[in-house]
């Protein structure tokens, strides 16, 4: 990811579903994102730097700022303004609180964009799994994966009102459920796997990611190296604590 920190302002904010707040951010420093020679950033992630609660000034130090990853939904072709969707009314944390209270003109900053989690666009079969935290990452893949590829996309949402337009002609299986650990596995029971193992992308709750990894390995014999997986959040743990757990896990792996 680019380490350049770009200051920005909130251009608009709107609650589009019971659990999604759509926020458009812009800056003169975003102009390069609209350059036709630049990559297609839809589906890439950025680090969003936010003021700490109770503070009006923005700390731009990535080591001390409130910083979270969000996926780019859209890029304005003229100004480079970025559209981001924040999950609300589900998880606790400073980014969620900010998204629900921020107003037009408020300050923030970004770092990035960083690369997509999955970068192999040469396969013939893809299985994409997500929820509201990763719906725009899947949107990016649906727009960029090969036309000839077989793509099976499954996205679970807590209500029908949370189903959003992904600007694609590809079929998407929207699974409305409050019990994704059971429902997602049932939805994946009848996949048809060809001789060539599919590439799987999943970005979900951490426990569900672990469960589905095991299912793909045992039921469909899909090797782990064919699975690109991220636990974007963890049930029962707020965003601050989950961030600390992941940092500690990374330290343990590197020690």
From TrEMBL:
FAD-binding FR-type domain mapped to chain residues: 3-120
Matching SUPFAM superfamilies: Riboflavin synthase domain-like
Stretches of the chain forming a coiled coil according to its record: none
Family according to the record: Belongs to the SIP oxidoreductase family.
Name assigned to this protein: Siderophore-interacting protein
Organism name: Psychromonas arctica
